[in-house]
C-alpha cells in the first residue's frame, strides 16, 4: 500500500497570538521527513486565523509560500499550502476570506474549541454547546447543518477529524460530502465514526483521506491510525484518495 501524500501537517507557524509551541517541525523538516518516508506530496495545514491559541498569523501566509518554494527545491517533494480552517458559526462561516482562499492550494475545515466564534450570539449558540460536549439532538442537527452550509459556501476539500469536538450526523454529512466532492478524514489521532457509520459511508461511496495531523516532523507520514481503521472496517482503498493515487483538490491549479 503506497501512501502518495500526507495532507494534514502542522509546523511552528501554528503558534497563535502568543507563539505557543503547538507544533515543532519547520516546513523544511516536515518535507525532509516526507521524503525519507517515501511520500511524493505533503501539505502544510496550520490552524486557521481565528484559533486563539494555535492559529497561524495572516501575515505569515506569503512568507510560508516562499519557504515552501525553497523546501520544494531542496527536497524534491511537492508541497501544498493549505490551512485547517475553523467553522465559526452555525451558518457555516469559516475563518477565511476570498482573498485568503486565493492564496491557498486547498482547504481543510474542522471545529476547534479555541477558535473564536463569529459573534457573541454564535458563541452561545454554536461554540459553547460544543465546548461543553453537549450531544443533544439539537446540537447534532445544528452542527451538521453548519458543516453542510460550509461545504456549500466554500471550496472545502477535506473535513478534518469529523465528529471530534463537534457531534455530527454522519449520514447527512456523507451525502453532502459526495454532492460537494469533499473528503472525510481518517485522522492520525482521532476517528469518530462507528462501524455502522462507516458501513453507510462506504455504501454511499464517500471519499476518505488518511492523514497524520502531525505536530512534529517525525510524525509526518504516520497515517497508520487511518489505515488500521480502513482495514478493520473494510473501507476499500479506492475510496481513500491518498493511497495509490493523488487526490484532486478544488482550488489547486496544478
Ligand atoms: Zn484539528
Ligand atoms: Zn490539525
TL;DR?
This protein is α/β, with parallel strands linked by helices and 254 residues long.
Characterization of this structure:
The protein is α/β, with parallel strands linked by helices. It has one domain (5-239): Alpha-Beta Barrel (TIM Barrel), CATH 3.20.20.140. Helices cover 35% and strands 13% of the residues. It is built from 8 helices and 7 strands, in the order βαβαβαβααβαβαβα. The protein has helices at 27-36, 60-75, 98-102, 120-131, 137-153, 170-179, 195-204, 224-232, and strands spanning 5-9, 41-47, 78-86, 108-110, 158-159, 183-186, 208-210. A 7-stranded parallel beta sheet has the order 1-2-3-4-5-6-7. Helix 3 (98-102) links the parallel strand 3 (78-86) and strand 4 (108-110). The radius of gyration is 17 Å and the shape is globular. The two termini are 25 Å apart. 49% of the residues are buried. The model has no long low-confidence stretch (mean pLDDT 95). It binds zinc ion (2 copies). Residues 8, 10, 84, 160, 213 line the site of one zinc ion (ZN).
Key terms:
254 residues, TIM Barrel, globular, binds zinc ion
List the helices and strands and how they pair.
Layout: E1 5-9, H1 27-36, E2 41-47, H2 60-75, E3 78-86, H3 98-102, E4 108-110, H4 120-131, H5 137-153, E5 158-159, H6 170-179, E6 183-186, H7 195-204, E7 208-210, H8 224-232
Parallel strand pairs: 1-2, 2-3, 3-4, 4-5, 5-6, 6-7
The structure holds zinc ion (2 copies).
One zinc ion (ZN) binds next to loops.
Mean pLDDT: 95
The rounded distance between the terminal residues' Cα atoms is 25 Å
Major sheet: order of its strands?
1-2-3-4-5-6-7
| CATH homologous superfamily classification | Metal-dependent hydrolases
CATH architecture: Alpha-Beta Barrel
Largest sheet: 7 strands, parallel
Strand content: 5-15%
- The chain-level structural class is alpha/beta
Radius of gyration from the CA trace? Answer: 17 Å
* Count of alpha and pi helical runs: 8
Uncertain residue ranges: none
